[in-house]
Amino acid sequence: MIALFDRLARPLLRALDPEIAHGLALYALKLAPIPGAAPDDEKLRMQAFGLTFPNPVGLAAGFDKNAEVTDALFRLGFGFVEAGGVTPKPQPGNPRPRLFRLDADEAVINRFGFNSEGVEAVAKRLAVRGAPGIVGINIGANKDTVDRAADYVACIAALAPHADFLTVNISSPNTPGLRNLQQASALDDLLARVIEARERAAIGTKPRPLLLKIAPDLTLGDLDDVVGIARRRRIDGMIIGNTTLSRPALRESAKAKEQGGLSGRPLFALSTRMLAETYVRAEGAFPLIGVGGVDSGAAAFAKIKAGANLIQLYSGLIFRGVGLIGAIKKDLLDFLRIGRLDSLADAVGRDAASVTAEPWPA
Ligand SMILES: Cc1cc2nc3c(=O)[nH]c(=O)nc-3n(C[C@H](O)[C@H](O)[C@H](O)COP(=O)(O)O)c2cc1C
Fold first, then answer.
1. Is the pLDDT of residue 2 over 80?
2. Ligand 1, atom 26: nearest CA belongs to which residue?
3. CA-proximal residue: ligand 1, atom 21 (nearest)
């Protein structure tokens, strides 16, 4: 069924304007009778942030911005789904066109700028979701807001009851000034406030894990500060990372000039290096999620060895189709067998030191 979906739908979707194709993919996921994925091999199980993930392959934020298709996504075999980014108030995002597919590079550039139906609509939808499965919610700030930290607090208050974890996204490049929240004093203040909000939202229930999602474009000096503050404030984990403003060598040179964040295959080297750099600085204080250019089992395993407990992907789905999810899981089991490892947890961070010793990725 999944192979059939890929064979029929992908050529059509790739012939269309990327944003229309994305809308159609969401529509198809709502309507298609997708049978449930087979149960995962227990060797793929991963513990992180007090949660048990049936497999480590997650959907990255940005695909299901308004939590419309989480149930269908679990049926495709994801071990967890991150919905969002969600802003407190609804907002349209940037004008179109704002999504570009660089086919020859297997890359995407987007400048959506947090188009969101807002917390109220998303909370309502999640309150009635059917299938079990770990759903994280990626939260952000409205474009016109003055006190950005207050927006994250508002998102936590509204969405914590419906989320298995929450991601404080301070790394979207398409909201002017948002990435400044990664600077030390702003970050310390923000984390103090979001943690307090998380505790307040948890009266009578378990506090939700709070993760911090960073840009792959930080300097190593900035990263020292960010990880230090995240550790002091006892954040539950970090996601490395968001799209990049940098432009590694790209074949599609005209589209490469579009403003926005680059994702997909050309992001793999930089994001994996930043992941390993984060891992050596975190010293096991919290688990990491590795994101950026995962489009194969080998890429997923490289992320795990660079320090990720879990991985996420988005752009890889556009170029490889939904069959990629099962292919990664199968390959991960093969890598475990070849490496004579009992579980994926045994591989986490094995290569972090050697990755950080390599020349900086071009
Ligand atoms: C169209 C699009 C929209 C995205 N929206 C968000 C978002 O709202 N919040 C966020 O944290 N990341 C967002 N991302 C970034 C992804 O979650 C991910 O970090 C990035 O694309 C790198 O992974 P990939 O190479 O597998 O796509 C978006 C990415 C794309 C391509």
1. no
2. 313
3. 263
